[in-house]
Amino acid sequence: EAKLKGGNRMAQFEAEFDHERNMRQTIEEGIRGGLDRGEFAVHYQPIVEAATGRVGAVEALVRWPGREEGQLGPDVFIAVAESSGLIHQLGLFVLRRACEDLRDLHDLSVSVNVSPAQFRDPNFEYNVAEVLAEVDFPPSRLELEVTEGYLIEHPDRAVAAIAALKRQGISITLDDFGTGYSSIGYLRRYGFDRIKIDKSLAGRVGADPQATALVSGTVAIANALAMAVTAEGVETADHALLLRAAGCQKLQGYHFGRPVPLADLRRALSNVDRPAAAASADRAA
Ligand code: C2E
Ligand code: MG
Ligand code: MG
Ligand code: MG
Questions:
Q1: Ligand 1, atom nearest to 259 Cα
Q2: What's the 196 CA to ligand 2 centre distance in angstroms?
Q3: H or E stretch at 177
Q4: Whole-model pTM?
Q5: Relative to the CA of 112, which ligand 1 atom is closest?
Q6: Does 173 contact ligand 1 (Cβ within 6 A)?
């Protein structure tokens, strides 16, 4: 009887495994076709300077319209793109689109996420340079966001890639800080310009004294090592105040704005750029 039970469990496991593999294959086919058909879009989320509230940068976030209703957000399809190798094409598409979209918004920098798999490609830094040259986008306005996993696994390649990108004038940000295992002191050797504190940590500031101490400490060490700090996942005015008090130089989150298509970003920016005009229009009304 025990044997039968074990066998059933095995069969169930195999069925689940098959199901998952089929899902992954379906998504992979979808991404391949979606790239060919131009289905992917890029949305932009404002990043504000904590001291002034000015929008100085935006983060480019890939979207797959029509596909995200289920559970198919970027967290899911990016993972499939990574395991299938399609991330190289998808990643360069996002970079190119972001640079094209923002080229004439001269006051804005753009942060583009880079997957570890892209970093592994020895041509990555050349491909980036090529896109910037083709689009005529100044490297000084580009930040690339990387997560720590790959860096730890392949430190030599990571150090070389980051150095090559920085020589081009591109800034490098460590994304999702607080979700990994490494100390800032260790990560320092990669030469990051900025650390982005993950929303899982930033979101607990105020409510959780330990999280608050961790954020302040991170800021202190990062600043001492000439790295700036951005907090993400800022959802309320209270959080914004606390994270600013903790020393974060830049803030990003739903409190300031969700990721939106380019047209909405332009509209939002033109509203804050002309406060006087908006105020006089209000008075006239
Ligand atoms: P990430 O780079 O850490 O991006 C931040 C995520 O937090 C985004 O989710 C953003 O929409 C979300 N977010 C921003 N503010 C708030 C907030 O106040 N509250 C909450 N709850 N969430 C907030 P999204 O767009 O679903 O992207 C998820 C992840 O997918 C990204 O995390 C990034 O790792 C990956 N990703 C997105 N676009 C790209 C891309 O073009 N290339 C690569 N390689 N990865 C991407
Ligand atoms: Mg990011
Ligand atoms: Mg992040
Ligand atoms: Mg993330």
A1: 11
A2: 8
A3: strand 171-177
A4: 0.91
A5: 41
A6: no
